[in-house]
Design brief:
8 helices; 266 residues; alpha/beta; Rossmann fold
């Protein structure tokens, strides 16, 4: 992982800058969240069900809204994120809301160096695996942090979406479905506030579904299901149309926008 240290440092700096912008954004709707609105979407709520009394590790938690939403539902939560600014805000929100989640700042691949507890549920969602150069150590860490009988759940944007470059409102197919070579992007704004003057500098990697599934299997997990969906809960890609159920679809839908996987540790 040492050869990727510079990439991670650039990404960390970008995410640190995003925190304050995202916390003020309409997308993260902090006022409503503080008033009790959940940040969780129907997919993950349906998949995890009743989490009361369960221990939950949230990987790549940003500034902790999902972690704290699970905490409000009665889970004993720990959130992990690369961004120290994100973790600081998560800790502040946790205190302000009178919740009992814990937050730890570290690279997600190093989680087992910082956390020795095991959990009933390991959870991660929406825009997470693209920041990782190799999913094998990620999957190994997930296996290590699960209790026997516990499960891992991921809801994530479909890898086909990351084959495209989204620049100036145009959508151009540019990257391989399974791209080993790092992808560098530099652009103004963020997904939560495209009018922001902040310059995002980001290194990422594309991982196809077979890579995700096989990494989890190789780590020792049993795949319970893999599902794909045409809808997205977030309006973060060009030309999306809001449906009556509040989710977004493409004008001409030719491929899925999301996938979810549930995997159990025997």
């Amino acid at each position: 992982m040492e050869e990727h240290t510079n990439f991670f440092e650039v990404n960390k700096d970008t995410w640190n800058k995003k925190v304050a912008i995202h916390a003020q954004s309409e997308m993260y709707d902090m006022e409503a969240f503080k008033a009790g609105k959940t940040s969780l979407m129907p997919f993950e709520l349906d998949a995890l069900g009743n989490v009361k009394g369960k221990s939950l590790l949230h990987l790549q938690c940003h500034f902790g809204q999902d972690t704290l939403s699970w905490s409000r539902m009665g889970a004993r939560c720990v959130g992990v994120d690369l961004s120290d600014e994100g973790i600081k805000l998560a800790q502040k929100l946790n205190q302000e809301l009178g919740l009992h989640a814990e937050f730890i700042c570290c690279n997600v691949l190093d989680t087992s160096n910082y956390i020795k507890d095991t959990f009933d549920i390991v959870y991660t969602s929406y825009g997470v695996i693209g920041w990782l150069p190799d999913l094998k150590p990620w999957a190994k860490m997930i296996y290590e942090r699960l209790e026997p009988g516990g499960f891992f759940y991921i809801i994530e944007f479909h890898p086909i979406l990351w084959m495209f470059d989204y620049v100036d409102g145009k959508t151009e197919m540019k990257y391989h479905y399974n791209q080993d070579k790092v992808i560098y992007e530099e652009y103004e704004g963020t997904y939560a506030d495209q009018s922001s003057k902040m310059v995002s500098k980001e290194y990422g990697w594309n991982h196809g579904l077979s890579e995700v599934v096989n990494a989890l299997i190789e780590a020792g997990l049993k795949i319970d299901y893999l599902n794909e969906y045409d809808e997205s809960p977030y309006d973060v890609f060009p030309y999306l149309v809001k449906q009556s159920n509040g989710l977004y679809k493409m004008k001409d839908q030719l491929f899925p926008m999301l996938f979810e996987i549930k995997a159990t540790k025997k």
